[in-house]
Amino acid sequence: MNALSDLATKTIQAHERLNEHYGVQEIYGRADPMHELIGTILSHRTTHANEVAAYRNMRERFPTWEAVRDAPLADLTAAIRTATYPEVKAPYIQQVLARLIEERGVANIDFLHDFSTEDAMQWLTDLPGVGPKTATLLLLFNFRKPVMPVDTHVHRVTQRLGIIGPKVSANKAHDILLSYLPADAKVLFNFHKHFYWHGQRVCTWHEPKCSECVLQSMCDYYQSGGTAVLSSTAGRRKG
Ligand code: SF4
């Protein structure tokens, strides 16, 4: 077995172990696609509570998407001020809505169901303020497309395990993980959710709870005593 297939095998084994530990989930969307699209623009470097407050305040102040698009920029910026960088996000939101309404006649992205995964990724990432993480979250959760959102938790845990190299970016990790896993939205959804939960609850940034971890026997970071070379995003094991 070569190194590449070793890593693919390890990825599948880690996935199966976390499936047993957390239980297999059905795919669920978090909000309607338009809410999710605009909400994820608001969410960049913002706590969930502040994102929710910004979104709610924006919709109360401007109840239709056309009203958000046409709002005076200063008023929209003020409405989303609980999000970080509101002066950057407000024009992004208006540009996204303007393009969408001009192109489709309505603020609705349900047409992405009919797009191939590649075309949907391209369309979304061409929008201002929408990067691969936003696009993959939207496409996996709301459209059940076979993509892999790599957030900070998925990135950190896969790096500590040794599945992803220490200098591999989240965007590159997306392609690597997809090459190791089947192109099946339910598999990818469960992989994402489980690694996300594991990073939040067990393999935390500062003090990973290795003694409680079901991945311990296959973890490069643990096996090295916490000395495995890691990127700055992966943190250190204490004690
Ligand atoms: Fe993270 Fe420790 Fe588990 Fe490795 S053994 S995945 S470092 S919690």
Outline of this structure?
This protein is mainly alpha-helical. The chain has helices spanning 3-22, 33-43, 48-61, 65-70, 73-79, 86-104, 117-125, 132-141, 152-161, 170-180, 185-201, 220-223.
Poorly predicted residue ranges: 232-239
Radius of gyration, whole Å: 19 Å
What order do the SSEs take from the amino end to the carboxyl end, as H and E? HHHHHHHHHHHH
CATH H level of the largest domain: which superfamily? Hypothetical protein, domain 2
* CATH fold type of the largest domain: Endonuclease III, domain 1
CATH class of the largest domain: Mainly Alpha
Distance between the termini: 35 Å
Percent of residues in beta strands: under 5%
Major sheet summary line: none
Named once each, the bound ligands are: iron/sulfur cluster
Average the pLDDT over all residues and give the rounded result: 91
What global shape is seen?
A: elongated
Please give the domain count. 2
Q: CATH architecture of the largest domain, please? A: Orthogonal Bundle
Q: Name the assembly state.
A: single chain
Number of helices: 12
Helical percentage: 55-70%
- Secondary structure tally: strands: 0
GO molecular function: 4 iron, 4 sulfur cluster binding; catalytic activity, acting on DNA; endonuclease activity; hydrolase activity; metal ion binding
Cofactor: [4Fe-4S] cluster
Protein name: Endonuclease III
Domain HhH-GPD: 42-201
